[in-house]
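HOLO CASE FILE
Compound: malonyl-coenzyme A
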Amino acid sequence: MTTHLLPDLADVSRRGDRTALRFGDTALTYRELAALAADLAGQLRGLHRVAVWATPTAETCVAVVAALTAGVAVVPINPKIGTRELSHIVADSAPDRVLAAPGVELPGELADLPRISVSLAPPTEAGPLPDEPDPETPAFVVYTSGTTGPPKGVVLPRRAITSNLDALAEIWEWTADDVLVHALPLFHVHGLILGVVGPLRRGCTLHHLGRFSTEAVAAELDGPGTMLFGVPTMYHRLAEDCAADPEMAGAIGKARLLVSGSAALPATEHQRIEQLTGQRVVERYGMTETLMNCSIRFSGDRRPGTVGLPVPGVDLRLVDDDGNPIPETDTEAVGEIEVRGPNLFLGYLNRPDATAEAMRDGWFRTGDMAMRDPDGYVRIVGRRATDLIKSGGYKIGAGEIENVLLDHPGVAEVAVTGEPDPDLGERIVAWVVARGQEPPADELIAHVAEQLAAHKRPREVRFLSSLPRNDMGKVMKRALTS
Ligand code: MLC
Ligand code: AMP
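Model generated. Tokens follow.
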């Protein structure tokens, strides 16, 4: 293992003229990226944390690489974030600066922070790189939703990133010759850590599509792309379009490796993609707090409906309701997945209570429920909390949406649930008891999109005269089905 997080940027003599990143017409070689990052890192020296306006652009990558180079933690911000969520994240993470491309108009509290413009103009003189920071230094603070309350900041150290990316490289046979293709957002671990830091650590090339379209993915995999990272919604859309377009299916079939994660890939979808393209998708299972826990190996059995074995370095166990480990030989029992290893986060920012609650004797409690096949392959069967929804691969807390809807004058009571959806995996549904006249559903949907983020908006609003409650007055969400 190398001591540098990004060895090909620390020593451009290794692969300096290779393309590091491409976003549309904008491409940067390793040499260009290293020079830009070194220049910007000089401006970040001594800072603690910076917010990065995480548009899917080369500027975002330069900002992130510069901060990693300077040993300054990055708080990536969803460029479609709503007002309430932004206020929370800025207050909670207290960034020293905000980094964004020149000319971008920043909203709310971000506009009040001192700003550093991230330009792609070649610097006149690249300064020396700072020393490699300690592996325990925080690299990212990534916000993720819980069942209740506002999102929590997950503090990820450099050691979690290097160890996890190297483990993935080993099991996916991921090398400097790969060209990774994806269209994931750059404010979550999938798109940012696996999808940007991943290729830069390998010394390979990233082609980011800016926004997802099946046509753009197919064109890349027909051309230089060798690997695709995506969420199940993207694979669902690819399967739909490949069914109608054999040429697209042929293009997808040329990939070396298709990886799916962030939510369960239905076994039927896995099989449909294989029938259409000849490719068997490699599924992996991860979490913001732990990075990747399990994956199918490149040369392993790509069994539909499973996430394979723990990745190298990660210890995984299933525990029963009392926290007792379930023997590995028990293939009948369902238990909660707990993990331990160098992949774990440092804790939730400003939330020692939540951090302590998430841990048991050094193991992280994922909240995901699973079984084991006889050969140890892990099958995820559900989630402990009904109040966590995975929609389009985004984790969304029901409580967060309920709180925002309760602020609307037309809402007296509300319960938010996730319902199965063929495209999104789960679709957010808001069950509303109106205060007086029923407000228009679109108005409630727009209210959530404006306060939180568009992907957290309910896709449906259903009005009721009252919510089903148990004797304790608690809403019985399982009774809320269409
Ligand atoms: C519609 N829109 C609205 C709106 N109605 N905006 C505001 N108000 C309203 N009322 C807009 C949206 O802003 C968006 O705009 C467009 O409509 C469509 O949005 P969508 O329907 O929500 O999504 P879609 O574009 O269809 O995207 C599907 C998707 C996306 C799969 C591309 O869900 C996605 O990128 N998912 C990835 C999630 C991810 O990375 N998760 C990883 C978490 S890490 P516009 O401008 O965009 O068109 C993790 C760990 C691990 O889980 O294991 O990896
Ligand atoms: P996040 O908090 O956004 O990082 O989401 C992490 C959660 O995504 C996990 O706890 C799982 O519930 C879910 N997840 C990620 N990958 C998979 C997968 N391959 N199969 C099922 N669930 C997954």
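CASE NOTES: The domain at 7-196 is CATH 3.40.50.12780 (Rossmann fold). The CA atoms of residues 59 and 118 lie 6 Å apart.
CLOSED: yes
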